[in-house]
Design goal:
- Helix content is 37%, strand content 24%.
- With 726 residues, the chain is of the alpha+beta class.
- Strands 16, 20, 21, 22, 23, 24, 25, 26 and 27 form a nine-stranded mixed β-sheet that branches. Strands 2-1-5-3-4 form a five-stranded mixed β-sheet, with helices on both faces. Strands 6, 7, 8, 12 and 13 form a five-stranded antiparallel β-sheet that branches.
- The longest helix has 23 residues.
- The N terminus is likely disordered.
Length: 726
């Protein structure tokens, strides 16, 4: 029951958002009325929802039966092996992971949030049933953090039930906290609700409500959750007849959940509601409209303070804010999910394309251009029509179904198959900056990071199986080169054969071995394995980059594909074709993107740099400022010489004072401001101010104009990250 993770950007520490420009007054007025109604709502419904009593009575009765079952289980001595090889002894059905933690140290027992028993996540207070291997995980462990936030979602669910009397749907952890989705009758969630939800959550935390686990039969579950059609759906579709699953209780809140959870709500020391949004049941616009409330929590109040500082910094760096301030891009209701790049934003866009094209030329790629729209027969052949149709823009053309392309790969297969191919041509590295359309839900659209129309630095490599390793090494070198230019570090994860896969196991095993061998050779011990999470058509390597705020973003992907070549009957003649002209071989197809969506990458880069662009990709590289009117002509001459060298340069020949002009240039994030006056004009030089020395009052040294042009041209051509003249 997971959902896409969204990054929270609002909190009760910030003012409630005002309606954006262009919103009709009626909607703005409605928002004010909703906020006023929320302010007048009681903290907690009285009496509480009827389902509280119904659930608790059932839980208490069945829990007593389960406790009796536990009491009657045979006890015997067991061995518990810790990660360092130490062995502790215990008693089956009595000793819990928490008992082991307390035996080791009180500090560990206070810090640990979840256990892992023989590789399976396990409640700390749940008795061990047999000898096992035991790991104890704290909040800093990725799995510990997920469990902590999952438990916090239950606390939020309890608060929402008390405040709204809602029907809960699902409440998973995300990469940035957690959310709970719910149906609330005749009332939207508004920021004015957040303090009440936080008060109720803090109350649950102070009560140190124990998380209690109970195994229940399907028929009992249907009785317990008879009031909630959403929970009934999960029970009816996810729990086979004649089987059982678990519920967890904390306070009056009892939820259908496989767990596990932290020992009690008191482990949560800091809790904040971050934002809310509308959603659809099962992400289907034809279903009920729901409310989704997001939150964040920590085991230490200091961590929440740090997180609020992070939010404040993230808000400053928001690419939508910077895009507006620097006049880079915008969006319009008449074309939702499609970005309008203004002249300065287009400079950034074109610089990234130029970078990739230069690399393509060096690395043996061939650019192609393929159609934007295809007959549905192509998508049926590729398999996308069956699995992806709802995410495509479909059109009726000449009484047939066509669709705008959501990816380039099928078109590239047609290009490969346009004539006979020989093994001597392979590998063929096909690149395209093709316009792609995906029919994202309107509620999911978000600036540059979630759009409907975008362009990818998309390439497909057609090669022989024996060439996979060398191509992968080339791709890793390509990745390092590109990401290094922006100061990004990256992490690699190899995802292997899923349960539902196409092809034969031997082919998969060989491909996975090749990928793991080249990963270990290139990045020994620095990559991760994600078993069973490959695409159905082949194993893949996901690459996530970390930005200046230590957030992770997946941009690049490298995927092996054995199925599209099969579906399109792609073939090449190998060396053995001399003896048998009819013998042909299927190529392997490698899908590869490094920047990924250019729109999304520009959004990430905007926030990574906080709008202080590296010189070579900067839309405002140089500003020339004359100290007085007599030197305007020389300022224009300097600008022309720099422009002739291929640099972006502006001249401020306006009426503002010199300090005002310099300050305006600093605010606009020009990389360099060149000041010229009488001394500079006589000596054919300029006074250089570096963006990194903002606020410096002292006059910089004069540098000859020819030297400055050469140094700036070098900085631009070499694509250096540091804003410094050498």
């Amino acid at each position: 029951m997971s959902a896409p993770a969204l990054h929270p950007v609002e909190s009760t520490a910030n003012p409630a958002p005002v309606p954006p420009a262009g919103v009709p007054k009626a909607k703005a007025d409605k928002g004010k009325k909703d906020a006023k109604a929320a302010a007048g709502s009681p903290l907690e419904l009285s009496p509480p929802p009827e389902y509280f009593d119904h659930r608790i009575k059932m839980f208490d009765r069945l829990k007593a039966e389960y406790d009796e079952f536990l009491k009657n289980q045979p006890r015997q001595e067991i061995s518990v092996t810790l990660p360092d090889g130490a062995v502790k002894t215990g008693t089956s059905w009595e000793t819990s992971p928490m008992d082991i933690a307390k035996e080791i140290s009180k500090g560990l027992a206070d810090r640990v949030v979840i256990a892992k028993v023989d590789g399976e996540l396990w409640d700390l207070e749940r008795p061990l049933e047999m000898s096992c291997k035991l790991e104890l995980l704290d909040f800093e462990h990725p799995e510990g953090k997920k469990v902590f936030w999952h438990s916090s979602a239950h606390v939020l669910g309890e608060a929402a039930e008390k405040h709204y009397g809602c029907h809960l749907c699902l409440g998973p952890p995300t990469d940035e906290g957690f959310f709970y989705e719910m149906a609330i009758q005749d009332r939207p969630v508004v920021p004015a609700d957040y303090p009440n939800l936080e008060t109720l959550s803090n109350g649950a935390m102070k009560e140190k409500q124990k998380f209690e686990r109970l195994v229940m039969k399907k028929e009992d579950l249907l009785e317990m959750f008879a009031y909630n059609k959403y929970k009934k759906h999960f029970i009816e579709t996810k729990v086979p007849d004649g089987t059982s699953t678990t519920v967890y209780r904390c306070g009056p809140m009892i939820d259908l959940c496989i767990g596990p959870h932290i020992p009690h709500t008191g482990r949560i020391k800091a809790f904040m509601v971050t934002k809310s949004s509308a959603s659809y049941w099962l992400n289907d616009a034809n279903n009920d409209s729901l409310q989704r409330i997001y939150g964040i929590s920590f085991p230490d109040t200091k961590q929440l303070k740090e997180y609020k500082n992070f939010l404040a910094e993230a808000a400053k760096r928001d690419h939508r804010k910077i895009g507006k301030e620097q006049e880079l891009f915008f969006w319009h209701d008449l074309s939702p999910g499609s970005t309008f790049f203004l002249p300065h934003g287009t400079r950034i866009y074109n610089k990234l394309v130029e970078l990739m094209k230069e690399e393509y030329h060096k690395r043996g790629y061939s650019e192609v251009v393929s159609p934007n729209m295809y007959n549905s027969k192509l998508w049926e052949q590729s398999g996308h029509w069956q699995h992806y149709k709802d995410d495509m823009f479909v059109l009726d053309v000449d009484k047939e179904k066509f669709a705008l392309k959501p990816m380039n790969c099928p078109g590239h297969c047609l290009i490969f198959d346009a004539r006979d191919r020989s093994y001597k041509e392979l590998p063929i590295r096909m690149a395209e900056f093709g316009v792609i359309h995906r029919n994202e839900a309107s509620g999911a659209l978000s600036g540059l990071t979630r759009v409907r129309r975008f362009v990818q630095d998309d390439t497909h490599i057609f090669c022989m199986p024996s060439q996979i390793e060398s191509e992968m090494e080339n791709l890793f070198d390509f990745l390092e080169n590109i990401y290094g230019l922006f100061g990004f570090t990256f992490k690699l994860v190899l995802s292997t054969r899923p349960d539902t896969f196409l092809g034969n196991v031997e082919t998969w095993n060989e491909a996975e071995k090749q990928l793991s061998d080249v990963l270990e050779r290139k990045y020994p011990g620095k990559w991760e394995l994600n078993p069973g999470d490959g695409a159905f058509y082949g194993p893949k390597i996901d690459i996530t980059i970390r930005d200046a705020l230590h957030r992770s973003h997946q941009c690049a992907t490298i995927q092996l594909d054995f199925q599209l070549p099969e579906r399109f009957k792609l073939k090449y003649r190998g060396p053995e074709a001399h003896d048998d002209p009819e013998k042909v071989t299927r190529p392997v197809m490698i899908h590869r993107a490094i920047l990924g969506s250019l729109e999304r990458f520009i959004g990430i880069l905007t926030e990574h740099t906080a709008g202080k662009w590296p010189f070579w990709v900067s839309p405002r590289q140089i500003l020339v400022v004359p100290v007085a009117a007599p030197f305007k002509d020389y300022a224009s001459e300097v600008a022309q010489q720099l422009q002739d060298a291929g640099l972006f340069v502006d001249v401020d020949n306006g009426e503002n004072t010199l300090p005002k002009k310099i300050r305006n240039g600093e605010i606009a994030q020009y990389n360099f401001i060149l000041v010229v006056g009488e001394d500079e004009m006589k000596s054919r030089s300029v006074n250089v101010r570096n963006r990194e020395d903002v606020g410096t009052k002292a006059r910089s040294e004069m540098i000859a104009l020819d030297q400055v042009v050469a140094k700036l041209s070098s900085l631009n051509k070499e694509r250096r990250l540091e804003n410094k003249l050498l």
